[in-house]
């Protein structure tokens, strides 16, 4: 077996050869932090390709179906932009443009001959997290020891997407083991945030979120066991969905901790519009994936649920805002985004109440115990093949490698799983009891809360606290992300110290420096009940529309691109507000 560094060098050479050399550009200097506009000014993309890559999923599909745009030209445009994005933020692992263009040409030929689309995703380029096996390609999930292992068949979800007409064209970077909220491994290195390259794009779907946010892909597939879709989507200003266990097929994908089936990893979409989330989920579910993956729930796309039949048909909804989780107080930009969303919902005629979190610290401990029960053995067995170092920190200035301590006995694990079951019942009862305070006759329709305690932090600073997302994995509640604002040092100055829950809360408070977080996107998440993905998507559309419909006048402003307004009434003295999408 060659030394692990030789394996990495060979893999990097194969990756470089997979990039069309005439698509290489001269990136801006590392001192240029915001590179989101560079793909449009670098000279590689023409005006039509820029238009294509700035178009939402819904409109792309319409123009592909009408043959206004061909699948070949759409795939070419996104492939170009993806390659440019990779040179800026190091977001790709596998690049297979030639294969994608051949598939796109087949789709164009089919449409021309039949006048029909292949499926609901006809011609749509889709990027995939480096877990989704594709026949003939390596899937390493950041492990040097898995270099050279070529898949003999596709993961089920890849087959489903191809049959729906999608065009997979790249795969994206992950952390070693895919069990980190940042993105760095010994093969491909570190992925950075396009909005500020000194900040992390999150993880473990960090390559996916970085790529989609720079418009190198219209829609990507990430995975989430503790926040790995929502954290990177939020850090990069994107929409996403963490569905409940079993709504999207996982069979045939590579993963860490395989066999751990208490808190399951799930696949879900990361995209630039809430419409893209719906398109993905409906397309996948309509293929009846339970006939291909035995762990998929046999539940068809529910139109009544999407129309909120159990939520007053979407009229006079009651949202609960969780201002903090009782463990860590979020930074000022997160608080401001909650205030903005509350005001927008109230203006739209919906009711807003406060959410009281219960047992979030215990749920965090439960999830940690489950994840670490055999994690060291899992990692050590995998890495022992090559002797590659085990990454134990994402700090830029810390090269130390060390495994974490192992977890608990099988019997102790059973007790933890039993405790989790009991708390899921307690949380269900807690949610049901809110019917007494909503005024609608129903319990709270959805929870709106932070995705993390901060916006995208500097490398290595997110730490191991992801419980704003992990708690919902432990409860198996579906959750979306949606963009609200960006960090503005003028509006989001450091606040006086609060009464800290503990030293960790104090550490998070002290980490905040408005200038270091400048321009970082701020997203929130909307959380619903187990297996009600359709309703969660619809309620996210409602929240998104409420934000978009906020009046733009001299009193306050909401969701207007690159314009400045003054506020005379809102408590945060609103001055400027930018977003990344304006679709309503």
Produce a short descriptive summary:
By secondary structure, this protein is of the alpha/beta class. The protein is built from 19 helices and 15 strands.
Model description:
The protein is built from 19 helices and 15 strands. The protein is an alpha/beta fold and 584 residues long. Helix 3 (47-53) packs across helix 5 (71-89) and helix 13 crosses helix 17. Strands 1-3-2-6-8-7-12-13-11-9-10 form an eleven-stranded mixed beta sheet, sandwiched between helices. A two-stranded antiparallel ribbon has the order 4-5. It has a two-stranded antiparallel ribbon with strand order 14-15. The protein has helices at 4-17, 38-41, 47-53, 57-65, 71-89, 97-114, 156-163, 206-213, 230-235, 274-285, 303-306, 332-347, 360-372, 375-383, 410-432, 435-438, 467-475, 503-511, 533-548, and strands spanning 92-95, 125-129, 167-172, 184-185, 189-190, 219-224, 239-242, 266-271, 318-321, 351-354, 446-450, 479-486, 521-527, 563-564, 576-577. The radius of gyration is 23 Å and the shape is globular. It is 36% helix and 11% strand.
User: Roughly what fraction of the amino acids lie in strands?
Assistant: 5-15%
Which structural class do the helices and strands define?
alpha/beta
Largest sheet: 11 strands, mixed
Through-space gap between termini: 56 Å
Query: How much helicity do the residues have?
Result: 25-40%
User: Mean of residue pLDDT?
Assistant: 92
Q: Globular, elongated, flat, extended or rod-shaped: what is the shape?
A: globular
Number of strands: 15
Give the quaternary arrangement of the chains.
Answer: single chain
What Rg, in angstroms, do the CA atoms define? 23 Å
Give unreliable regions as ranges.
398-403, 551-584
Total number of helical segments? 19
Biggest sheet: strand arrangement: 1-3-2-6-8-7-12-13-11-9-10
């Amino acid at each position: 077996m060659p030394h692990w560094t030789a394996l990495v060098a060979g893999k990097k050479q194969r990756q470089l050869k997979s990039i069309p050399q005439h698509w290489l550009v001269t990136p801006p200097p590392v001192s240029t932090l915001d590179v989101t506009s560079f793909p449009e000014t670098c000279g590689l993309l023409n005006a039509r390709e820029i238009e294509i890559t700035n178009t939402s999923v819904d409109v792309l599909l319409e123009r592909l179906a009408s043959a206004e745009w061909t699948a070949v030209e759409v795939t070419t445009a996104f492939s170009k932009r993806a390659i440019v994005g990779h040179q800026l933020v190091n977001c790709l692992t596998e690049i297979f443009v030639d294969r994608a263009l051949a598939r796109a040409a087949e789709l164009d030929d089919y449409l021309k001959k039949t006048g029909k689309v292949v499926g609901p995703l006809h011609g749509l380029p889709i990027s995939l997290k480096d877990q989704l096996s594709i026949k003939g390609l390596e899937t390493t999930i950041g492990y040097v020891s898995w270099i050279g292992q070529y898949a003999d068949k596709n993961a089920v979800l890849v087959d489903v997407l191809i049959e729906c007409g999608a065009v997979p064209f790249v795969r994206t970077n992950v952390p070693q083991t895919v069990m980190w909220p940042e993105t760095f491994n010994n093969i491909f290195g570190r992925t950075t945030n396009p909005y500020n390259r000194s900040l992390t794009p999150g993880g473990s779907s960090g390559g996916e979120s970085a790529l989609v946010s720079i418009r190198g892909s219209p829609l990507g597939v990430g995975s989430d066991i503790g926040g790995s879709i929502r954290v990177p989507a939020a850090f990069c200003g994107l929409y996403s969905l963490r569905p409940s266990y079993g709504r999207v097929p996982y069979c045939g994908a590579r993963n860490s901790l395989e066999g751990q089936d208490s808190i399951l990893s799930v696949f879900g979409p990361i995209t630039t519009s809430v419409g893209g989330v719906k398109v993905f989920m409906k397309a996948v579910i309509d293929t009846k994936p339970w006939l291909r993956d035995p762990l998929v729930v046999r539940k068809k796309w529910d139109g009544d649920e999407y129309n909120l039949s159990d939520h007053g048909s979407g009229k006079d909804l009651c949202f609960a805002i969780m201002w903090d989780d009782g463990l860590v107080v979020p930074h000022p930009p997160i608080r401001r985004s909650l205030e903005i969303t509350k005001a927008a919902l109230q203006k739209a005629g919906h009711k807003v109440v406060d959410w009281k979190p219960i047992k979030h610290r215990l749920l965090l401990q439960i999830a940690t115990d489950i994840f670490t029960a055999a994690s060291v053995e899992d990692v050590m067995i995998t890495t022992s093949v090559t002797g590659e170092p085990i990454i134990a920190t994402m700090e830029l200035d810390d090269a130390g490698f060390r495994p974490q301590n192992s977890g608990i006995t099988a019997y102790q694990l059973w007790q933890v799983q039993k405790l989790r079951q009991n708390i899921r019942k307690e949380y269900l009862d807690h949610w049901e009891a809110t019917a007494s305070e909503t005024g609608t006759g129903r319990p709270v329709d959805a929870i709106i809360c932070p995705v993390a305690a901060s916006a995208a932090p500097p490398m290595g600073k997110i730490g191991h606290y992801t419980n704003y997302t992990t708690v919902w994995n432990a409860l198996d509640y579906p959750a979306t992300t949606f963009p609200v604002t960006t960090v503005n040092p003028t509006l989001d100055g450091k606040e006086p110290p609060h009464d800290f829950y503990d030293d960790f809360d104090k550490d998070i408070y002290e980490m905040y420096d408005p200038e270091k977080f400048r321009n970082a996107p701020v997203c929130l998440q909307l959380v619903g009940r187990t297996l009600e993905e359709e309703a969660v998507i619809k309620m996210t559309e409602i929240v998104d529309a409420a934000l978009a419909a906020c009046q733009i006048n001299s009193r306050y402003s909401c969701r207007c691109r690159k314009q400045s307004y003054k506020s005379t009434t809102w408590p945060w003295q609103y001055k400027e507000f930018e977003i990344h999408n304006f679709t309503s």
